[in-house]
Amino acid sequence: MKKKEIKKLSKDEVLKNIDRFKKDLFNFRFQKINSQITNPAKINETKKTIARLKTTLKGKLNA
Fold first, then answer.
1. Which of 5, 23, 45, 52 is the most buried (most CB within 10 A)?
2. pLDDT one-digit tens code per residue, 14-39
3. Euclidean distance between the first and final Cα of the chain, in Å?
4. Helices marked H in 1-63 — which ranges?
């Protein structure tokens, strides 16, 4: 997700996306162990997206 897309989301949508990306990350880790992952860069990209979502959520909670 891009930063612009993340800023447009509401608090509930951000929380849902965090859960969804955490599940994706969990699955990517299993794929990596089993040597089934097609794009290893997805792991780092997913981690960064989760961090962006958490940062945005914290800003919205403090506002």
1. 52
2. 999 999 999 999 999 999 999 998 89
3. 22
4. 3-8, 11-33, 41-62
Look at residue 43 and give its three-state secondary structure. helix
Cα-only R_g, the chain: 13
pTM score: 0.89
Give the C-alpha separation, 1 to 33, whole Å.
25
Q: What is the pLDDT of residues 46-61, one digit of tens each?
A: 999 999 999 999 998 8
> From the CB of residue 28, how many other CB atoms can be counted at a distance below 10 Å?
20
User: Hey, where are the domains in the chain?
Assistant: 12-62
Amino acid at 56: T
Tokens at residue 33, please? 């162990």
